[in-house]
Amino acid sequence: MNAVEYYKDQLEQRVLNDSGSGSGLISLRKKAILDFTRWGIPTMKNEEWKYTRITPLLDKLPELPKNGDKQIPFTVQDFQKRQLPGHELANELVFVNGLFNSDLSKLISKEIQVLPIDKMQENGMQEILENHFDHSSKYLQDGIHALNTAFLKDGIFIRVGEDLKVKKPIYIYHITDARASNILSQPRSLVLLEKNAGLQIVETFLALGQPQNLSTESFSNHVIEIVLEKDASLEYYKIQNDELTNGQVSSCHIRQLGKSLVHTVVISLEGGMIRNNLNVVMESERCEAHLYGLYFQHGKTHIDNHTIVDNRKPGCFSNELYKGVLAGESTGVFNGKIFVRQEAQKTNAYQSNKNILLSGKASVNSKPQLEIFADDVKCSHGCTVGQLDDEAFFYLESRGIPKTKARALLVGAFASDIIEHIRISPIREWVEKLLAKRLEIENR
Amino acid sequence: MNSETFEPVRQELGKEVDAGLSTIEKTVLSDYKYGFITDIEADEAPKGLNEGTVRFISSKKNEPEWMLEWRLKAFRQWQKMNGHEPKWANLKFPPIDYQDIKYYSAPKQKIKANSLDEVDPELRKTFEKLGISLNEQKRLTGVAVDAVIDSISIGTSFKEQLSELGIIFCSISEAIREHPELIKKYLSTVVPPTDNYFAALNAAVFSDGSFCYIPKGVRCPMELSTYFRINAENTGQFERTLIIAEEGSYVSYLEGCTAPMRDENQLHAAVVELIAMEDAEIKYSTVQNWYPGDKNGLGGIYNFVTKRGICAGNRSKISWTQVETGSAITWKYPSVILKGDYSTGEFYSVAVTNNYQQADTGTKMLHIGKHTKSRIVSKGISAGHSNNSYRGLVHVNRQAENARNYSQCDSLLLGDKCGAHTFPYIEVKNASAVVEHEATTSKIGEDQIFYCNQRGINTETAVALIINGFAREVMNQLPMEFAVEAQKLLAISLEGSVG
User: Fold this and answer.
1) Which residues of chain A make contact with B417, given a CB cutoff of 8 A?
2) How many beta carbons lie within 10 A of that of residue B256, not counting itself?
3) Residue A48 carries which DSSP code?
4) Phi and psi for A58 in degrees, rounded to 5?
5) Does residue B238 contact residue B207 with C-beta atoms inside 8 Å?
6) pLDDT value at position B101?
7) Per-residue pLDDT tens for A106-155?
8) Residue B422: which of B394, B395, B441 has the closest Cα?
């Protein structure tokens, strides 16, 4: 049985079982199952997946956990070992194998409302559900996204009400515990920031398995959708530092419905196969978005960053900077799209992708793409692939700094352009430390 | 740009302004300048494509058996691909009925002309209307013209002068008969029939084209040139060009196109192959001005072209320069395979689209040899309801030490109903490579127009000035003979689009 048939079978059984609960999501899920069967798992023939192969990972048919399964061995102690720095002063939401775990989660900010998605309807949020849920499928039209939608029952809804500025960040942990069996985890969340609301989100991914076994044991297929109303502001951080060679597709879809501010930083330091989708859809005048990304890969890992900035209304501004360092036999992919629709006059949109190859066996594929339908715009993109500057090396070496340290210093400087945009200081310091460790300058 | 070349543009635009029409109206109203039909008896194949058609073309060209076999093989390949036209391009067009096209049309001539005087006077007139009279060309510019009208070579000039140097410059069908050893050795080594749908189609039914062979150490003393023209109704034009530059040689080749006005879409699927040996250099320049269709997007040429060169030897160089103003649809990616060490590939392009034109054009630079360099400069100008895409690939192989690429693709949008798109692909597998890509999109700044107005330059002239400035980097690469024509074309294609 191939992966498509297997999951289709699993899905159909569950949707039938769920239909009794009266969830309004059934039709959406049924459509997603159809889409999934039609499209299948994306292969390299799909232009959006030209450089990234995920089929072998799903051919292992990892299991789809569901609520009520008790065999997940993940414990409080396991969690405590993995909490992010600054967690004492943060709200924490924990997903284990794609299912929201309320026992491990804690909410300390009263401004935040958290609810399972399938309880939205009975809580009078039908309208929000209809208006905002699964908007991402308009942009991510492939089988893997449809697969997530088909399971959306176990997702959560996060809401910050009008004029509420949440001072403490939300840390969202996505834990995939594959110690018992191969796992496919599919967390899903929807976030709504109402007028003049403010929120900081940090998402991180952790996979557990036998570290000696290098074949992928788990796969996470994550989707978060964030909606911003007028004057809302969002800081979104995604830190990927998986311990295991874990396969991952992680999509973040942001809609700016009113004039609002988005600030995102995506840091990918470790993980077997990572595919990140980041969409920013500007549906109002004068929206602003800043997108930063850093990927630093080694070994045989693969990182793929796909971003879309869709300017649909006039006067928007976006700036995007993604930097990559590729060592070992790793592969980096960057695909950045900027759309400027006909209506979106006076758009300023900038995009830049800079890559450093540290090893002869590393490779990078970059595709910065502009699609512009309005004339009164300023748009540019740039892309470079190169090495560390010989002159800078010489300068440092002539001052007695050995080559390895000089290299660490230069790469560190290259990366700091991105890391400095993390505005939650415990997280920033932690990322700096991780990077320093990677650069082997800790034991000088 | 010097003032001399700018002058004609200025006069042209000056006249337009005097007429008192709004500038946009004028663009819309201006008819295709070269839209006329020459009444020549044509010797043609019936509509449709099957093995019979391929055999018909082959026998018409008096081709040897091995050539027919080669064509049939390509035809079978194409049949296998049938229905699998490349879909990835950013182009929209109704499906092409390949059985509704005539694949061969030769102007009827009883004897092959040896001198220009023997050429059909009707044909001569056509060239004169285009302003490229063979006589004129021969006398004034010293350009040897291998004029191709409706797929057959009519007259060639300067042949003797070239043959003294050992240069072979003739139609490809002549080369198949006279120089089979060269054809067998090089034909389809750069663009095999299996390469893509249109390359397979071309290999099966190509009617004529140019062949050029520059022997070792020879520097071709003149620009070689071919003017292509589509003439008979419903006839696809399938050209095949092969240029070989032996060790240490140099050649500059010009290709220019104009086509008469038609209501039905015409298919054009050409293949161009360039081969540069050690230390050789090939410069290939194109001005493409096929009929773009009317202001409602009706008619126009479908232009699906496969152009590729290989820098086979060390220190060789291939340079593509193109000015694309015509065709309803342009699908064209002149590419360079940088196989020899220290070889260089260049691509300079200006693509202009207006009304409902669609262009998806760009290049591929494949770095295989060590210390290879490539440079891409692409300028896209969109107006009306048109869509203009740049699609380029820079690929650095694992072995390609110290490869260097610089790409720049700028787009200029005139009007808010057109689109500009860039799809650059950058694939680097060697850590010593340095690859840079940058792209910008903008419109003509009001401050720039204001600056010109203030100095007594009217808006129309200012726009022409700015556009010529925008495209200058590419225009500078064109040989002198083409530069003037190309600049005029640019102004004609776009005048009145801004303001």
Assistant:
1) 342, 373
2) 23
3) G
4) -85, -15
5) yes
6) 80
7) 999 999 999 998 888 888 888 888 899 889 999 999 999 999 988 877 78
8) B441
- The whole-angstrom separation of Cα A257 and Cα A264 is 17
> What's the mean pLDDT in B8-13?
36
CA distance B337 to A288: 42
d(CA B385, CA B414): 10
pLDDT score of B164 more than 90? no
Residue whose tokens read 């590939």: B345
H/E element, A276 = strand A273-282
Q: B433 and A365: CB-CB below 8 Å?
A: no
- The verdict on a CB contact (< 8 Å) between A369 and B421 is yes
Q: A375: closest CA among A408, A351, A399, A346? A: A346
Which chain A residues contact residue B420 at CB under 8 A? 370, 372
CB hemisphere CA count around B375 (13 angstroms): 13
CA distance A307 to A336: 5
- Using an 8 Å CB-CB cutoff, list chain A residues near B385: none
Q: Do B415 and A370 touch (CB under 8 A)?
A: no
> Is it the case that residue A100 has pLDDT exceeding 50?
yes
For chain B, give the mean pLDDT.
78
Q: Which two tokens stand for residue B174?
A: 């002549």
Mutate to test the interface with A, among B358, B406, B426 (most CBs of A within 10 A): B426
- Please report the DSSP string for B47-63 in residue order: BS-SHHHHHHHHHHTT-
Picking from B396, B415, B422, the nearest residue to A370 by CB comes out as B422
One-letter identity of residue A263: H
- What contacts B452, CB < 8 A, 6 or more positions away? B459, B461, B462, B465, B466
Q: What residues of A are in contact with residue B88 (Cβ under 8 Å)? A: 47
Of A78, A438, A32, residue with least CA distance to A269: A438
B73: helix, strand or coil: helix
Residues B424, A369: C-beta atoms closer than 8 Å: yes
Judged by a CB distance cut-off of 8 A, whether residue B449 touches chain A is no
Q: State the Cα–Cα distance between residues A415 and A178, nearest whole angstrom.
A: 32
SS3 A332: strand
Shortest Cα–Cα distance, A289 to chain B (Å): 19
Angle at A219 between CA A9 and CA A361, to 5 degrees: 135
Reported ipTM = 0.84
Tokens 């669609």 sit on residue: B358
Token reading at B211: 């062949």
Q: Does B84 touch chain A (CB under 8 A)?
A: no
Number of residue pairs across A and B with CB atoms under 8 Å?
121
Cβ-Cβ contacts under 8 Å, A355 against chain B: 428
- Which pLDDT value is given to residue B335? 95
pLDDT at B330: 92
Residues of chain A whose C-beta is under 8 A from some C-beta in B? 47, 340, 342, 345, 355, 357-387
Rounded Cα distance, B428 and A331, in Å = 10
Residue A349 — very low, low, confident or very high, per pLDDT cuts 50/70/90?
very high
How many Å lie between the alpha carbon of B475 and the closest alpha carbon of chain A? 23
